[in-house]
Amino acid sequence: MSKTMSQGRKATAQRRDQANKLDRLQGVVRLLQEEHQTLRICGSVTQITPGYYGISGLEKHAHIGDCVELDVLRPFGRGPARAEVIRIDQGKVYAKPFSRHLDVGIGTRVYRMGPIQFCPDDSWKGRVIDALGRPIDGKGMLTPGRQSVLLENDPPSAMERGLISKPVRTGVRAIDLFTPLCVGQRIGVFAGSGVGKSTLLAMLARALEFDIVIVALVGERGREVREFISETLGDSLEHSIVVVATGDESAMMRRQAPKTAMALAEYFRDKGKSVLMIMDSATRFALASRDVAMASGEPAVARGFAPSVFSDLPHLLERAGPGPAPKDKDQPCGAITGIFAVLVDGDDHNDPVSDSIRGILDGHIVLDRSIADQGRYPAINLLTSVSRMANKAWAPNETSLIMKLKGMIARYEETRDLRLLGGYTKGSDPELDHAMELVPRIYDILCQTPFELGDTRTDPFRALSDALMAQEKKKG
């Protein structure tokens, strides 16, 4: 009897030991699956086109936006080849590659990786990375952080966001006076090509009132990228992270770069930081999104743009702004102050992309080609530029002063042709005479070179008053 009980206890112990070993083995398998997200779910390429690959075997496992890895190496040894799922049909998945030149053939194996994510860290400040979060500055590998972030995040809930209340000075006199910014505001810089849009963004990137600056250079020339980092940012690169996707890269990389930059901005915002997010340009993001949408079979509805482009834009831009209000009132509320360049097609400020973005943002700064032709930089049109958060930055007496100045400038500009033709006699209209004397002096004060930033600690209205008085004394 005792022998039977002993054998039973021994068998029970053996089963328990086997169960523990099985649990540990399953835990190791789960850990490996989490680390290597391929999960060995494999498909194969069955269709190759210039815009996408058709893949069989993944249709039951993949989702729109998932990343897949192709069993080939990218040229120049830059890691494995990746693509993103853009469409799923019965029996086939369509994926658009991030690289233009891949040695892919019929039957090439493809592995599902899941949503694109990376692990940012504070040590990334001062680094330049590509759209997939890989370093391209030759300074070695990036130190991964402890927390992974997804590139496709939803904006904070409207009722959970903090309120915008704190004004911020940029050192650009025309902006600080006529279109002031607040922490957490999103504003667009609208301009045609060659009007000074990138130069103005470079001036704003050196603003001193932010904890970190995230710069997304989308579709830029390779030459301008190096100049922007070395000459424009200069020492400011130490508290900046630059995400680059040049114009020669694929549409997938140009579409991905703003999302990577926004995910980085959200990471620092959630840590209570004040983040300045600069994107040049949102239009090139829309163009890249159009390429992807057309490859997935969407129809063109507005000047060649697919419907999904006009849903991608608000989803990306709404991620900027004030973060969720912290539960502890003593903790700072992080915010993303967004400045987005908008390349106006043919100087038509009502083209579909420009019109859509203008309706999403909290203001717009318009650069005018005719002002640039006069040699006034930055070429900001003070009458058509609007900041919807100006009431948060101006005191009541400042609001009254700006409205009077804008009225004076409008009167000066609308009579320009009449005065040039000699149709106005000085003394006929005292208000116009006053505008003719004061407005050119204001224009001179607002002119700045790219490296001539004002003191952000000085009240811009006081600086304007002092400059006008100095001009009056010099004239006298």
UniProtKB/TrEMBL annotation:
GO CC annotation: cytoplasm; type III protein secretion system complex
Pfam families: ATP-synt_ab (PF00006), T3SS_ATPase_C (PF18269)
Primary residence: cytoplasm
GO biological process: protein secretion by the type III secretion system
Gene3D superfamilies referenced in this protein's UniProt entry, alphabetically: 3.40.50.12240
GO molecular function, one term: ATP hydrolysis activity
Keyword field: ATP-binding, Cytoplasm, Nucleotide-binding, Protein transport, Translocase, Transport
InterPro entries listed in its UniProt record: AAA+_ATPase, ATPase_alpha/beta_chains, ATPase_F1/V1/A1_a/bsu_nucl-bd, ATPase_T3SS_FliI/YscN, P-loop_NTPase, T3SS_ATPase_C
Subcellular location, record wording: Cytoplasm
Residue ranges constituting the AAA+ ATPase domain according to the UniProt record: 183-372
This protein's record includes keyword Nucleotide-binding: yes
NCBIfam families assigned: fliI_yscN
Protein name as catalogued: Flagellum-specific ATP synthase
